[in-house]
Amino acid sequence: MQSELSIPLSEVVTKSFDALVYMDRDFHIADLDLRTTDIFGYDRVELLGQPIDMLLPSVYRLNHQMLMQGFLEGQQQEGRVGKSFRMITGMRKSGEEFPCYGVIFKFTEPRQDEAVACILLKELSGIVRLQRSLEASERNFNHGQKLALIGSWEFFIHQDTLFWSDEVYRVFKVDPANYEPNNQDFLKLLHPDDLERVQALFDNSIHMRTPYNILYRVILSDGTTKLIQERGQTLFSESGEPQRSIGTVQDITDMLDLLPQLTEYSRLIK
Questions:
Q1: Side-chain half-sphere CA neighbours of 153 within 13 A
Q2: 193 band by pLDDT with thresholds 50, 70 and 90
């Protein structure tokens, strides 16, 4: 009897998944591909006829059997092992656990090897490592900005869209959960005596295609005045159109208290 799947199996395996395992009604491995042996570290003969849950850590096996039983007895043809693309945990012969994503398909009729379903697996170890590395880099980046009181920003000119790093919110004392940065609201933070100068310098930097460095004051919602140093530049398209501006802001208010000490120190070392 020929088995049927709701989608072309060879296309799915080739393009999307790393391993293929066939399972019989008793939840034993009826067949597998070579990539399965590579991922799990077993020889083919070590896996054939063995319970499929040997590929899982023991803590998950009972729940896995219940899920498989419910799937085989149900009406649906396709099921995802886990929920909404959540990771599951596989276990190699060495005992090493690793994250993966699995999809199970039920055959309309058993294969000649008595397989009634196949499981497609996608190993996620590399993706998880990359995600954790990026998360660590982001934490380090935010921590460094917090220590230096420096935040970064990006302004998409044609879309009039502004993005702030976490430290910019802290510098301007606004809650990122309740505030969406935009250029008009930012200009309202500027001290009235500095507004025209800041706008003129920004416009001139775009016209001249040069970076800028400026000091200005902001008045926060609690009435506090801060002194800000901003550096920025604008990036242009190949046709010469301004696309986006990037830059940093630094709260240097506390540095004003150090000016007398720095002036005296400068006098002493000369």
A1: 27
A2: very high
Reported as a single tens digit per residue, the pLDDT across 112-132 is 777 788 888 888 776 666 666
- Tell me if the pTM is above 0.70: no
* pLDDT given for residue 151 in this prediction: 85
Q: Is the pLDDT of residue 5 over 70?
A: no
SS3 per residue for 89-156:
EEECCCCCEEEEEEEEEECCCCCCCCEEEEEEEEECHHHHHHHHHHHHHHHHHHHHHHHHCEEEEEEE
Q: What is the length of the chain?
A: 270
Q: CATH 3.20.20.20: does it fit domain 139-269?
A: no
Q: Give me the CATH code for the 9-123 domain, please.
A: 3.30.450.20
Residues 6+ apart with CB under 8 A from 224: 173
Q: How many CB atoms lie within 10 A of CB 231?
A: 15
Site of tokens 């809650």: 175
Domain map of the chain by residue range? 9-123, 139-269
Q: What share of the chain is helix, strand, coil (3-state, %, to 5)?
A: 40, 30, 30
Mean pLDDT to the nearest integer, 72-95: 63
